[in-house]
């Protein structure tokens, strides 16, 4: 796992800890990281292929047990 992937995992964990929502919107991640939504979507898809996150289009993302 590279540093960028770790940063995403940490931020998703923070959102899950702060919020009652089960999924974090990719737009929220993009806003906090200062990246475009497209860049965030690409990274989320990469993390999903590694089974680190559960990604649901139009719903958002959440960590898996592995993540």
Task: Give me a quick take on this structure.
This protein is mainly α. It is 55% helix and 12% strand.
Task: Describe the model.
The protein has three helices and two strands; from the N terminus they run H-H-H-E-E. Strands 1-2 form a two-stranded antiparallel sheet. The N and C termini lie close together (11 Å).
Topology diagram in text:
Blueprint: H1 3-18, H2 26-33, H3 37-49, E1 53-56, E2 60-63
Antiparallel strand pairs: 1-2
List the quaternary state of the chains. single chain
Overall strand count = 2
Q: Round the Cα radius of gyration to an integer and report it.
A: 10 Å
Structural class: mainly alpha
Counted by DSSP, the helix tally is 3
Helical proportion, percent range: 55-70%
Strand order of the largest sheet: 1-2
Biggest beta-sheet profile: 2 strands, antiparallel
Poorly predicted tracts of residues = none
Q: So what's the overall shape?
A: globular
Question: Main traits of this protein?
Answer:
67 residues, mainly alpha, two-stranded antiparallel sheet, 3 helices, 55% helix
């Amino acid at each position: 796992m590279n540093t960028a992937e770790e940063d995403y995992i940490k931020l998703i964990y923070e959102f899950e800890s702060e919020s009652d929502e089960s999924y974090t919107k990719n737009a929220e991640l993009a806003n906090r990281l200062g990246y475009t939504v497209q860049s965030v979507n690409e990274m989320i898809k990469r993390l999903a292929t590694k089974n680190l996150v559960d990604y649901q289009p139009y719903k958002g993302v959440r960590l898996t047990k592995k993540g």
